[in-house]
Amino acid sequence: MASVLPSTLASVLASVLRSGVQGRAGRWIACTLVITGAVWLAAFAGLLGVADHIRVDVPQALAIKLPLLQSRPDLIFAGESRTEYQVDAELAARLTGRPAGGAVNIAYDAGEPLAVLAAIRRQSELFRKAHVVVSVAPFIFNEGVRSAAVYPLDVAGRLGVVEQMTSFLPLRIGTLFRFIRESFNARLASDQHMAERASRPPAYGLSVLQTSQPEARWPRDLGTHPHYGDWNLSGPKTRFETAALCDMVPLVRQLTVVIPPWAPRYARDADAAWREKDDQYSALVTDAGRRCGFGVLNIEAVPGLDQSNYADEMHVNASGIPIYTRYLVAQLRS
Amino acid sequence: MLFSSYTFLFQFLPATLLAFAAARRHSARAGVLVLAAASLFFYGAWRPAYLLVLIASVAANFSLGLLMEDPLKRRIVGTFGVALNLVALCYFKYTGFILDAVSTVSGTSLPFAEIVLPLGISFFTFQQIAYLVDVMRGAKVERDVVSYTLFVCFFPHLIAGPLVHHAEMIPQFKRSRTGRSAVLAARGLAIFAAGLFKKVVIADNLAQFVSPVFAHVDAGGSVTTSWAWLATLAYTLQIYFDFSGYSDMAIGLALLFGIRLPVNFRSPYQAASIIEFWRRWHVTLSRFLRDYLYIPLGGNRLGKQRRYANLMVTMLLGGLWHGAGWNFLIWGGLHGLYLGVNHLWSDRHDHKKDSAALRSAGGVLSWALTLLAVIIAWVFFRARTLAGAGAMLAGLSGFTGAGAAYESPGILRMMDLPMLVGETRLLQIGVGAVVIASAVALLLPNVAQIFGYREYRRSPEQSAFVRWQPSAAWAIVTALALASSLFGMWQRLEFLYFQF
Asked: Which H/E stretch holds residue B124?
């Protein structure tokens, strides 16, 4: 079988080099495919340039949550999915003696500090007197994670067309597709003044995962989890995202960066690879906090939050939300 | 797996082409085997369980064909086979519709049947019915199961046609090696690129002027005259470019493997009568309906009144073939009526007596009337509810119904990339898009003509101007079409005819 493919390719190549009608048609096909590739690359570069030009740092996923700020909250939970699915802002407001709407949750899937910073700059009045609590995850800093679903788009937008193409083509083209689409969506949300005019999302921004994933889908360990894959904390992600956390400090009353826990079935002590990478990333955030003046809350475990409260390895399900929220609020108050 | 998906273009197609090329070096039969296996994989990739339905259908019809070799059993087995196919088609496609109709008429509540329609079932069932009927009429029984399987399942036509005939497919599988494979493949690549462009760049971009407006009227809203005309005209063009684009892609893909599929569209909107329209629109379905329904019903051999009745029955069933719903029935009925009027007019009016000027003016008027009739019928075809069709027709007539009138958020989507332009500008852009697409549909030769495509055992299509050849200029044009289509492929809109 292994010899069939090369010999077939050789035969196809021979037909291209042949003279006569067949050879001419073969050469035409080859030329057409080469020109298609060249035209596509040029057009793709142009489209990336347009996306770079029109994009704004506040993505659509964040823009649709910003109407929550109309209640002028002074406790704002932001960041990635582990805040979106785990922090009940209404409960947090009650626990801290705030009126309804005094605390809101503007986090979104794969949310990044750069986007939160852009929202703060855009609506500085609403953030100036607020305690902003931003959660982070390893994929936000780990340059090795380049998948379309979680690559921070505001980082991609700072790379420039040439670096975008050399970094992501050909295997990570999906990341650039998402970047282009989300750039247009972010611009649309901005042009529509979604932050001011859209209706407020329900439940003060909390989304709920009702069910837990089947046993077969749980990762065996976290040391080999994709979020820690090709571990590299020295790329543009780390540079831009830690700088964004630092830049938030003078723009808000108080900034706390939260490192949420993983599901309790994963034991740090038994997984040296995970522990080593996780310690590096926690240290990176803690060091930035020390330098720039924000607090860091590294939550390795939550008392009372057990395996049955988790929907997947990262996120709690509906039953875990009050447990996590109460613990987080208690930690913030202490 | 859509033809306009990255998985198809960059994984399935290259792998199949390479495997086919390798197999053909061994023998023609090996190539057929590879294509049959690839086609079954292609179908199974959608929903593996329904691959069993396809295989069962092929196995049953092939076996019935073998039984029909006995002249004594031929008629009874053939009749049983046709009935079996129709029962299967009815079960998968019409159970819900029939139960719903019975519930409505009887006033009783029957259980709602949610049966997933296997992709392409209307196509592969009709093709096999034609085969059984032809064997009943004395055609040769196919004894090679692989060739028969490939005739039914060949992936370029499997999901949405063209409806192929066994007599034009199976002989092609049995030919020895062709000496012009690269020539055919070059033409196939160019035709595929044209079809992909028609689907992804033209049809999919027109969809934004259609879907939200029809969804609004189907939900009980009304529509202004300007939006009604824009949505209806855009749909008229969308369905043409979508379906003919798919057919072009199918023809191009088949040519990559040296197989010639029948032409399915010949500039239908250039037709100057409904009779001519049906000779140009979905040609292979028209051919099937004529040969296996209209003519067996008696055609025009039993008098004029019987002819009109046969036309109406044929078109009503043709409408139902497209989908189980009153709207499709009305669409078919309208075309039956149109055809009846057209025949009546032709019988009573002798064009030869008209002066040249009158013939010319009459030609333009006929074309405009034909197009208008087709457009009005499309409203029923596209609307999901009769009330929605009514609201759209009211809008077209200048009346705005009782519900809230459609208001667009004013977002233009170019290749699904959104831009806020405002409602007025969006309407203008929509009109511009419709004008450009109309110019392509009405003024340019069709793909078969441009590429000088030749059906199996037919002469090449003729074109008055512009003719494809393997030149540098055409390489650039083809590359531009392919490259621009690749950007639109992230939209992932399905082909309109997949639902049929």
From this structure: helix B121-136
Q: Are B495 and B160 in contact (CB under 8 A)?
A: yes
Q: How far apart are CA A145 and CA A136, in angstroms?
A: 14
Q: Is residue A29 within 8 angstroms of chain B, CB to CB?
A: yes
pLDDT at B101 over 70: yes
Helix H or strand E segment including B336? helix B326-348
Question: If DSSP codes are grouped into helix, strand and coil, which group holds residue B349?
Answer: coil
B164-182 burial, b at 16+ Cβ within 10 Å, e below that, comes to bbbebbbebbeeeeeeebb
Residue B71, SS3?
coil
Q: Do B179 and A22 touch (CB under 8 A)?
A: yes
Give the H or E element holding residue B404.
none
The SS3 call for residue B31 is helix
The size of chain B, in residues, is: 500
The answer to which of A19-28, B420-429, B454-463 has the lowest mean pLDDT is B454-463
In the block, tokens 């290749």 appear at B415
Q: DSSP secondary structure string, B430-475?
A: HHHHHHHHHHHHHHSPPHHHHTT---TTSPPPP-SS----SSHHHH
Identify all chain B residues contacting A35, using CB atoms and an 8 Å cutoff: 475-476, 479
> Tokens standing for B114?
């949610």
One-letter amino acid at A222 equals L
> Residue B304 belongs to what H/E stretch?
helix B304-322
Q: Are A98 and A89 in contact (CB under 8 A)?
A: no
Q: With contact defined as beta carbons under 8 Å apart, do A233 and A281 qualify?
A: yes
Is the pLDDT confidence value at B64 over 60? yes
Q: Kindly report whether the peptide bond that precedes residue A113 is cis, defined as omega within 30 degrees of 0.
A: no
Please check whether residue B429 is in contact with residue B255, taking contact to mean a CB–CB distance below 8 angstroms: no
Coil, helix or strand at residue B148: helix
Beta bridge partners of B419: B412
Tens-digit pLDDT profile for residues B340-374: 999 998 888 776 777 777 778 888 999 999 999 99
- pLDDT tens, position by position, A12-35: 666 666 668 888 899 999 999 999
Contact B456/B172 with Cβ under 8 angstroms? yes
Structural tokens at position B458: 């037919």
Q: Per residue, what are the HEC states of chain A?
A: CCCHHHHHHHHHHHHHHCCHHHHHHHHHHHHHHHHHHHHHHHHHHHHHHHHHHHCCCCCHHHHCCHHHHHHCCCEEEECCHHHHCCCCHHHHHHHCCCCCCCEEECCCCCCCHHHHHHHHHHCHHHHHCCEEEEECCHHHHCCCCCCCCCCCHHHHCCCCHHHHHHHHCCCCHHHHHHHHHHHHHHHHHHHCCHHHHCCCCHHHHCCCCCCCCCHHHCCCCCCCCHHHCCCCCCCHHHHHHHHHHHHHHHHCCEEEEEECCCCCCCCHHHCHHHHHHHHHHHHHHHHHHHHHCCEEEECCCCCCCCHHHECCCCCECHHHHHHHHHHHHHHHHC
Tell me the chain A residues in contact with residue B487 when contact means C-beta distances shorter than 8 Å: 40, 43-44, 47
ipTM of this complex prediction, to 2 decimal places = 0.85
Nearest CA in chain A to B20: A8
> B interface mutation test: which of A1, A29, A192 has the most B CBs within 10 A?
A29
Q: What is the pLDDT of residue B350?
A: 72
Prior bond to B162 cis, omega within 30? yes
**Alpha helices per DSSP H over B197-282:** 204-206, 211-218, 225-256, 274-280
Diameter of chain B by CA atoms? 71
The answer to whether B494 and B500 are in contact (CB under 8 A) is no
Strand-pairing partners, residue A257, are A134, A296
With H, G, I as helix, E, B as strand and everything else as coil, classify residue B419.
Answer: strand
Closest CA of chain A from B28, distance in Å: 15
Burial of A33 (0-12, 13-18, 19+ CB in 10 A): middle
Q: Which residues of B touch A191 (CB under 8 A)?
A: 420
Q: Is B26 one of the catalytic residues?
A: no
